[in-house]
């Protein structure tokens, strides 16, 4: 309860607003089939590029599809995919970073060599290269995002494990005959929950931006799938005359990334009781 109260206090006014924004956006995406006034893929050429009105709250796009309905549906794939990518990245990074940090030696040297290689590559360029090679689609985007993200997770986990393994209670467990697997599962990993949760939230926000970027470039989700990045790309030729076509999905991307990062910062302050609260993120 103490940490929960500290977390709520750490949120502050901006954090509370971010939490409300996140709940509203996730809730509206999940309830899109009931909230959307139109089928997001229904084409009405007679109503193409209709202005904002009581019938179409955000107007229509170049094919006469209701923009408000597409915005509601647009977050569904992005949010679910971001969660899946982040979970996969976290699991890979957790396993590799934990083993490297705990056992050290040649295993750590090999792991560090791979981490340095992946971190030395330009992230977005590498992601685009992988997605472009595999072809557009959800599967290729998933692989590209995981391959380009695991190294950061592994580095953070490795650093935390190296600090934990030097604690006196770990030495005590070894002294009484505790094996490595028991020590890792019951003592090492549980003591990394705080940093992992915070990094998880921060990573989700970045993944959502990456998904939107790949979809904007035509390497992610493909039309007619309603997606915020796809909507921004489709609206590019008309942004001077119909700016709201870009503003609506673009604002959704910015708001959900802002909300997740604010909550991640509050979690960091609530879960880290050390003086250098953000040192593990540096």
TrEMBL record:
Keywords: Cell membrane, Membrane, Transferase, Transmembrane, Transmembrane helix, Transport. It is a multi-pass membrane protein. One of its GO terms (cellular component) is plasma membrane. This is GNAT family acetyltransferase. It is found in: Cell membrane. The chain crosses the membrane at residues 12-36, 79-104, 124-148, 196-221, 241-264. One of its GO terms (biological process) is transmembrane transport. Pfam families: BPD_transp_1 (PF00528), OppC_N (PF12911). The keyword Transport applies. Residues 79-264 form the ABC transmembrane type-1 domain.
